[in-house]
UniProtKB/TrEMBL annotation:
EC number: 1.14.13.113
Cofactor: FAD
Organism of derivation: Sodalis ligni
The protein, known as: FAD-dependent urate hydroxylase
Domain of life: Bacteria
Pathway(s) it belongs to: Purine metabolism; urate degradation
Length: 384
C-alpha cells in the first residue's frame, strides 16, 4: 500500500510514521520550501503523549517535555493566587504525563523519525483525481504523485478540504489575538514546574514550562480582526493592553525580544460532517481546525493518525470502506473538541462579560478537582 500525504506538519509526520510502522510506503509533499514551526510551543496532553508513545517516541518526548507538575491561576492586578493545585491526580487518572514542548524540537523529532528523505518540499497542490483505484496529486511545478490513498494534512488553509467537501469553508475569527514565544524561566515570573495563568479583563497571560529551562509564554487580548500591528511593536502594544497588570506580567513584557514574538489572529472552522471522499481523507487542522483554548489541536491530529493507521492495518474490505470507518470513528470526537474549545474561548475572552466574571469568581473557589475532571474527560475521549 502506498500513501500520499499532503503536509509535513505534526499531523502529517505522525501519520507518516504510523503508516510506515505498519509497512505502508509513504511519500509526503509539502508546499513550503523550508519547514518552519508555526508557533513557539505546544502543550501535548496525555492523549497526545500516548500517540507518540505508540509510534515509538516514548523516551524522546520525555526528554523534550517540560515538567508541568502543577497548575495555577492568578489575579491580574495583584498577582495573588486564585487557585493552585498539583496535576498528579490527572496523571494517575489517565495514566500519562502532559508534556509542553517547543514546536521546533517536536517537529524535528517527528521528521527525523519519519526520515526526511520521504519529504518533497516546494510542492504546492493544485489538483486531485481519484479514479477508484488510485489517487493522483498534481503540483504547481507540473509534477505529480500517485498512491492508493491520499491524506490531506495541509492545515487550516487546506486545499484537500475543498476537494473532499466540493466547496471552500470560511474560517471563523474567534475574537482575539494571541502573542506567543519562548523565554528563559525565572522564579520572578512563575515557578519553573507550573503552568501559571494570570486572568482578568477577558485577557490572559500564561507561562508554561518546556525543556531547557524555558517558559512558553502567551498573551491573549480580545481585539477586532485585521489590526495593523507589527512584530517590532509587540512590546509597546502589550504594555498598552496590559497596563495596570501585576509585576510579573510587566517583567515578562520587559524581557521580550520583538523578533521572538509571534502574533496570531485566532480562528477555527465549524465542525465538518464529512472528512472523507473516496480514497482521500482529511487529518488534523484540515478536518477540524480549532482555537487553542483547550490545547487539543495537535493532540487531535495525532489521534487521527493513530486511528487511521490502525484501521488500515486491521480492515480488509478496501481503502474506501476503511476511510469511511475512519470518518465515523473521528467525526464526533473532533467535532466535540472544536466546540469545547470554542466554548472555553468565549468564556475566557469575555464574549459574555457576566459569564467571564462568574468564571473568575469560580477560580477563587476551585480546589483543582473540577478542572482536572474537565481535562480528564477530554483526554479519556481519545483512542488510546
Amino acid at each position: 500500500m502506498k500513501a500520499i500525504i499532503i503536509g509535513a506538519g505534526m499531523g502529517g509526520a505522525t501519520a507518516g510514521i504510523a503508516l510506515q510502522n505498519m509497512g505502508c510506503r509513504v511519500e509526503i509533499y509539502e508546499s513550503v520550501r523550508e519547514i518552519k514551526p508555526v508557533g513557539a510551543a505546544i502543550s501535548i496532553w496525555p492523549n497526545g503523549v500516548k500517540c507518540l508513545n505508540f509510534i515509538g517516541l516514548q523516551q524522546q518526548i520525555k526528554t523534550l517535555g517540560g515538567n508541568m507538575a502543577a497548575m495555577a491561576y492568578r489575579d491580574y492586578r495583584t498577582g495573588e493566587t486564585l487557585t493552585q493545585f498539583s496535576l498528579r491526580p490527572l496523571v494517575e487518572r489517565v495514566g500519562e504525563y502532559p508534556y509542553p514542548v517547543a514546536r521546533a524540537e517536536l517537529q524535528s523529532l517527528l521528521l527525523d523519525a519519519l526520515g526526511r528523505e520521504r519529504i518533497s518540499l516546494g510542492k504546492r497542490l493544485v489538483e486531485l483525481e481519484d479514479d477508484g483505484r488510485q489517487v493522483t496529486a498534481w503540483f504547481e511545478d507540473g509534477s505529480s504523485a500517485s498512491g492508493d490513498l491520499l491524506i490531506g494534512a495541509d492545515g487550516a488553509h487546506s486545499v484537500v478540504r475543498g476537494y473532499v467537501l466540493g466547496h471552500t469553508v470560511e474560517r471563523r475569527f474567534a475574537g482575539y489575538v494571541n502573542w506567543n514565544g519562548l523565554i528563559a524561566a525565572e522564579n520572578g515570573l512563575a515557578p519553573a514546574d507550573q503552568w501559571t495563568t494570570f486572568v482578568g479583563q477577558g485577557k490572559r497571560v500564561s507561562l508554561m514550562p518546556v525543556a531547557g529551562g524555558r517558559f512558553y509564554f502567551f498573551f491573549d487580548v480580545p481585539l477586532p480582526q485585521g489590526l495593523r500591528q507589527r512584530s517590532d511593536t509587540a512590546k509597546e502594544d502589550l504594555r498598552g493592553y496590559f497596563a495596570g497588570w501585576c509585576a510579573p506580567v510587566q517583567r515578562l513584557i520587559d524581557r521580550l525580544e520583538p523578533a521572538g514574538v509571534n502574533r496570531v489572529e485566532i480562528h477555527d472552522i465549524d465542525p465538518l460532517e464529512q472528512l472523507v471522499r473516496g480514497r482521500v481523507a482529511l487529518l488534523g487542522d484540515a478536518g477540524h481546525s480549532s482555537t487553542p483554548d483547550i490545547g487539543q489541536g495537535g493532540c487531535a491530529a495525532m489521534e487521527d493518525a493513530i486511528v487511521l493507521a490502525n484501521l488500515l492495518r486491521t480492515h480488509s474490505l478496501g481503502i474506501e470502506d476503511t476511510l469511511r470507518r475512519y470518518q465515523e470513528s473521528r467525526r464526533q470526537r473532533v467535532g466535540s473538541l472544536v466546540l469545547k474549545a470554542r466554548k472555553r474561548c468565549d468564556v475566557t475572552h469575555g464574549k459574555d462579560p457576566a459569564a467571564t466574571e462568574d468564571w473568575y469568581r469560580s477560580l477563587a473557589r476551585e480546589t483543582g478537582e473540577h478542572i482536572i475532571d474537565g481535562l480528564a474527560d477530554t483526554i479519556e475521549g481519545g483512542p488510546l
